[in-house]
């Protein structure tokens, strides 16, 4: 058994993927050993919580196991493919969490308020959130994705550049254009830009 494990360690990632397509658990274990640390690191940056990052990493590797046939070497390395699965699953989870928060916000909004000033403040905050969502909906997908990664997931410009595999200048340019469009959106509506 030890000799067989050694055999997996000398194989290239692409060879392990071929074995994994045939359901080879040893090949999966070798890929996990090679890439789980990087996957966990990305998961942690996205989720900001140890347990959530562990869950995301496990979920992503389960997807790797089930979707091994979907890997195409011409699209990038195995590591890039695995990290893109982590990234996509993470975004799905973050969106799901945001949806649950919005539902909770709606439930809380419908609850009676004991003080009119609290109700007014809450209504004001909700309207601002609504306006921000409306402004974000006007952005092209590539600008929206960069703003989401920067402001909602906490990525730096360099991390976004690496994650999306686009030049740093493009990331900065799209972010600048996106923010300008949001400012313009609020200017056209004669509204103050929410802080």
What is the compact description of this entry?
By secondary structure, the chain is mainly α. Helices cover 79% and strands 0% of the residues.
Query: Helical stretch count?
Result: 9
**DSSP strand tally:** 0
Largest sheet entry: none
* C-alpha end-to-end distance: 60 Å
Shape type:
elongated
**Percent range for β-strand residues:** under 5%
Order of helices and strands: HHHHHHHHH
Helicity level: over 70%
**Mean of residue pLDDT?**
83
Rg result: 22 Å
How would you describe the overall organization of this protein?
By secondary structure, this protein is mostly helical. The chain has helices at 2-10, 13-21, 25-47, 50-66, 78-110, 116-137, 141-152, 157-164, 168-188. Helix content is 79%, strand content 0%.
Features:
195 residues, mainly alpha, elongated
Secondary structure elements and pairings:
Elements: H1 2-10, H2 13-21, H3 25-47, H4 50-66, H5 78-110, H6 116-137, H7 141-152, H8 157-164, H9 168-188
